[in-house]
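User: I'm preparing a small set of examples for a lab meeting where we compare how different chains pack in three dimensions. I only have the primary sequence for this one, and I'd like the structure in token form so I can line it up with the others. Please keep the answer compact; I'll paste it straight into my notes.
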Amino acid sequence: MEFEISEYNYLNVDLKGKRTGQLKTLCPHCSETRKNKKDPCLSVNIDSGVYNCHYCGKSGNIHKYKKITNVDYKVPYYHYNDDYDIPEAVIKFFADRAISVETMKLLKIDYELDIYFPKANKKHGAIVFPYFKNGICINKSFRDAKKNFTMVKDAEKTLYNLDSIYQTETAYFVEGQMDVATAVECGYYNTVSVPNGATTGAINLDYLDEIYDTHLKDKKKYILAGDNDTAGKNLTQKLAERLGKTRCWIVDWKDCKDGNEYLIKYGKEEYKDAINKAEPYPVSGVYTIRDAEEELLEEWRNGAQKGSPCHFRSLEPHFSWLKKDDIVFAGYPGMGKTEFEYFLNILKSIKDGWRWAIAGMEEKTSGRFYRKLVEMYVGMRIEPEQRDRYNNQMTENQLRQGMEFIREHFYYIRPEKFTRGAIFDAFDYTVARYGVDGIVIDPYNKIVKEVKAGLRDDELLVDYYRDCEMFAISHDVCAVTITHMTRPESVKDDIIPMPNAYSILGGQATNNAVDEILFVHRLSSNFIDPDRVIRVAKVRDRDIVGIPGDARATFDFRKRRFLDGDEDPIVGYGIQSKLTMPLPYKDDNDMESTDYIPF
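Assistant: Understood. Below is the structure token output for the 599-residue chain.
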């Protein structure tokens, strides 16, 4: 995924006539209110747009960016019938649902013949809901009388009625096109619907990436008026987590399934009253049994929730990924804790499509950070010296293929100042912008130590982990901290003693504060020994995450991967077909038949 500048210097920072390079200038946030108004306290890199104020601490980007997509979406044929000559049966269909012809015309709802419905395996006439983006029809959704649905194959997905929320302060979210028509009928034109409905499982909101900066970022309020069933409540939760709970309000449809049923049963005025009585999304920490009702019923039906698998076979009895958990990876210097944690991230991305935001503060450049991930993914080396050393050369196309995967799943965070606030602000942005599933701070000791009156070092550490926990809970992500330990003073018979939960930084305070603690350890003092013990020393919810215990891993220096016994987990989970697909931009003149990821 690549980006280009959509709005240059939207903060109107004084760049002193320069178009490139680094400079110091006045801060748009604090200079006007300062006594010394002429102090150039803002550092700006004009090329990247990144800025940081050394006085008020504000940081960000002076430019606005938009995603450049390389996907050639199919553009559907669209012709609107100005005479609105559609069958009376369709008009009656909407009238029976309290939707007028005027609303149908406003939304350009139409009718077409010979639409193929895969589920019914038939062609017949269908209601047409056109999807507009910047005034252009980019997709169409079709519905028949038996509630079969289909969309234009290979067309772009986005929110239905998207243009209605451009530059509005409030956006109303519902679950389907009929619910949009219902809201418009009642006077709420700035209402949108997700294109693919709701489910009780995972919900893909990736299409929000494309429109976040232009249509969603600056909203003051989101009114979430989804369906009143389990799937609808799941969609409401996922939207709130993605859009930001503090800006979301929820509508209660009482004894009705959705807004259209509510309109039919109670009428327009009651519908408006329900919208006006929307309540803030519950983030205060006060819950009633009603808030847990669906979770308890789901547990009664299908058993307790389990963590999401880590896909490292020997580790799975002991550890799984559980969103909202606060996790620590620890070990002595040079043990490979960062490499192993990143490898688990790679596995989770390959198998389940998870996205990660990583504050990798030990790497000086983004290139050094991403090199590790690309080499792990490809299973080959980039740098010529390393390629020759391991006789495992990566071709340019393999490099590009690796970069393409990493681009879609990993986001590197390295603010100018490693303050807790700057790091979590960046994490907050990546959750909203990219929908990341996990955040990683690597390592803790690089964070600028904050002074808080009356707090000891161990209390400051607990305060940090509390921030991690609150972020993980409010954003529905895993929060991982990688932390160093002081190497033990005594090494007997060339054996380094195994650490425990109380030898970690903060000792008992850390052990009490976090949900899981994992140690990555090499018993031998020989730094080229590839064998590792992965010890899961603490698990708070053992019925859900796993039982404390040990797993074994062997670091393959040649592939930059960890083997599970003799098994390469990337190969072992049957993902070869995903990784051996040719790149869309390969040069067929240069590319040999073996020029793929070699699994």
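A couple of notes for your slides: Residues 324 and 472 are 4 Å apart (CA to CA). The chain has three domains: 2-68, 88-280, 314-579.

User: Perfect, thanks.
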